Each structure stands twice: as structure tokens, then as C-alpha cells.
Amino acid sequence: MKTMREIREECGVFGVYGTRKENVALLTYYGLYALQHRGQESCGIAVNNGKEILLHKDVGLVQEVLTEKIMDSLGTGNMAIGHVRYGTTGNSGRANAQPLVVKHLKGTLSTVHNGNIVNAFQLRHALEMDGAIFHTTSDTEVISYVITNERIKKPEIEDAVLSAMDILEGAYSLILMTENKLLAVRDKHGFRPLCYGVTSDGTYVIASESCALDAVGARFIRDIRPGEIVVFEESGVYSIDDNCGKAEEALCIFEYIYFARPDSVIDGYSVHKARLRAGAFLAKDHPVDADIVVGVPDSGIDGAIGYSCASSIPYGTGFIKNKYVGRTFISPAQKMREELLKIKLNPVRDVVSGKRVILVDDSIVRGTTSARIVRLLRDAGAKEVHLRVTSPPFVNPCYYGTDIDSKDNLIACKYSVNEIARIIGVDSLGYLNVEHLPYIADETGTKKYCTACFTGEYKTDIRNVHKYCFE
């Protein structure tokens, strides 16, 4: 049995639409390279060359999977989509890699997806009862089948997607490619980011984050709005906003805390500034006498700088990160996470030895990684270690595409703050106050976010989602 908890994924999507044949695969390669932080298990590219869809995907990093030989084989075209993925235990492998290509009565649909569909089990069951045969355990295949079923009944792909959006529940930022169109789609809540821009020669580019637009020299145009479908075709670009404003906006706040690159701007707000502000809040709420502020690379660094500026305690480079080791948070198994940490971070002894250190990190999930990082500082001679966390305690699982385990594996569900401090070996521990979450990106606090993993306030009906499983 593979539970739905095991197939959740946080991913990066990228798409290219041009009016002439060009090396769209190479543009997609660079875009995926910029989004590698969002997924390090598998990747893939699909290219529309005007006659057929050429696809390559496999397990591994972008530079490992998309070799020069593979890139040459993809050739030229005017459209392409790409994907980087990470998976959780039990669902590694090429089968769940994307893009996903489905051939149907009216043509071909290629799909890349970031997010998680909370009603995927019911939809899959209904589709199977109607004769559908599934080849993956990914909810992306469910999305493809739902859209395909609607496409059979509708005159255009955008009409099919519009209908499918009333069927799909949960988080989905999609890029869809047909024979002659590219569509960018964001769910009604806007759980996951999606934006688009244009290159100097008029080629449109769609991406999970604006940093990927920068990587290919594209000028940012705007974010796709929650509930919006943006269609790219030969006659131009147009928006379908029938579903906009139908649900409360709820971008995942963890995008600002951890997932996104600091040089990205999401829904108009700088990720870098959000992390600085989170650090400043920590300095105000959890002050401590110390000699130096140190950030855990990479997503804890901006928070540490923010804490330093607000507290006037000097910031120092306390760790050197091995750039060739991936994120431990998104490694498929806990044991692998622990082993990777041994070679991922190395403390700078001259910076921390004999010092009272304020250590800033983005989160504590299970606590094992935090304990090992603290031990590294102790072994390097730190006199005191005070941990400050730029997120509140995780007390709920996420059903919208973040790899946060059930409550059984969340340390904050079992122990108090003081107990957690003792377990991970710090002199004091301070979390970001939940009340500050709306203000870390938006100073006015008016924008709405999904904070369910911290507050339990889910934006969709999840009463039965934990019971879902696939044989």
C-alpha cells in the first residue's frame, strides 16, 4: 500500500512558447536549472516540433538527465515544457517523472504540475471504474485524465480546462501543451506560484518562480492570478478569468520561508525581503545576549541577516555549504537526510569558537537535522547556541504539496518548546510567532496565505484525505 502522504511533491515547472522554431529545449534546460532547488529527484522536457511531441525524462538532476546528446535529440520547436520533481518514500522512479504525455481522441496533451490534488483518490477511482488505466501513482495523471475527459466534450482545450477546474480540488500550478497552444493554469486559491515573461525576441516563458525567467533573459510580465488560465497561441496571449475571485487566495507561506529562491519575487513580494523581515520579528520577540548571528545555508541566511540588523549583533558566516549536495529536507528518506548532512555543512571554527551563537534556521520538522547542526557548532567550540526559527512550529500535515509528515513525525506535536530545546541541544529556542506570518511578505498584512501546517486552517475540505491510498 502506498499512502497519499507518500506521493506528495514540491516541484518546479517551466514552459516556452514562440512563434517560430528555435531551441526551446535549451531555454527550458536553463529554466529548469534555475528551479533545481524545487526538486532534485527527477526531471524532464517535452518539445513540440510541429509534427510530434519529443519527450525525455528520468531520475536525476537536470545536468545528469538532460545530457548534450539528449538535448540534441529533442531538436527544435516552438513550444516546450519542463519539470523538476522530488518525491517521498516509495514513489521514486522514472514512472512518476514529468512531463506526462497523454494521447486522446482529439490530439495530445502534455502536462507539468506543481501541487497536490486533495480529491485525487475519488477521481482516480471514478476514472478507473470508467475504464481508465493508470501508469503512475502521481495525481498529475489524474489531472491529465480529467482534462482529457472534458476535452472530448469541449470544442477547445481552454474550455476543457475551465470545466476541469470545477472538478479538481487542491493545489495545482499547471503548464499544458497541445499541438498548437500552451496554457498556464493556477488553482482558484493560488496555493503554488506561477508567473510568465517574455524574451527580447518575443518568446514567452512561464515558470514557477521569477528567478527562472531571469535565468533565460526574459522580462517578467506578471504572476498568473489564482483561478486564471493564460493561453499562448499563434494569434497572441489572452486570459480566461472566469474562476478568478471564486475562492480566497491562499499562497503557501512556506514559499517565502523555505521553498523559493531568495532572488525570486512571488505575487509581487520579494522572497529575500520576507526572510529578512522574519528574522527581524525573531529579534524583537526572542532577544538574547550573544556574540554572533549565524544562518543555516541557504534559506536561513537571510533570516540571520534580518535578525542581526534588528538586534545589532554581528552577522557571521558560520557554515560553509558543499554546493554539490542537495537539500536534506527533500531527500526521500530520513536516513539519507542524516547521512547527507555530514558532508553538506561544515562549521567555520574561527567564526564560532568560544562564541555565544544565535543560529537561525527556516524550520524544525522532525528535529533530527537541527540536533546534528547544533552538534556541529558545539564540536567547533561554540560556547552557547540559541536557535531561532523563521517559521512557527509545524503541528499539522500539509495536503497541498509540501513534504511535511503526519503529526506522528512532527516534533512540535509531541513536545513543548523547552523540551524541544533540550532534545536538540540548544540553550534557548524561539519560533516565529504565528501572528507575524501575514506580515513577513506583505508589510500591511492584508494578503491572505495558506498557513495550515502551522494553524490547522485548511482552505479545502480535507476530512477524508488522510484515508486515501492507492493499491
What does it look like?
- By secondary structure, the chain is an alpha+beta fold.
- It folds into two domains: 2-249, Glutamine Phosphoribosylpyrophosphate, subunit 1, domain 1, CATH 3.60.20; 270-453, Rossmann fold, CATH 3.40.50.2020.
- The chain contains 16 helices and 25 strands.
- A seven-stranded antiparallel beta sheet has the order 4-3-5-2-11-10-12.
- A hairpin with a 2-residue loop joins strand 6 (100-104) and strand 7 (107-117).
- Helix 5 packs across helix 6 (157-164).
- The chain is globular and about 70 Å long.
- It starts with a strand and ends with a strand.
- Mean pLDDT is 91; it is low at 1-9 and 467-471.
- The active site is at residue 11.
- This is Amidophosphoribosyltransferase.
- Pathway: Purine metabolism; IMP biosynthesis via de novo pathway; N(1)-(5-phospho-D-ribosyl)glycinamide from 5-phospho-alpha-D-ribose 1-diphosphate: step 1/2.
Question: Which features does this protein show?
Answer:
471 residues, alpha+beta, Glutamine Phosphoribosylpyrophosphate, subunit 1, domain 1, Rossmann fold, 2 domains, seven-stranded antiparallel sheet, 29% helix, globular
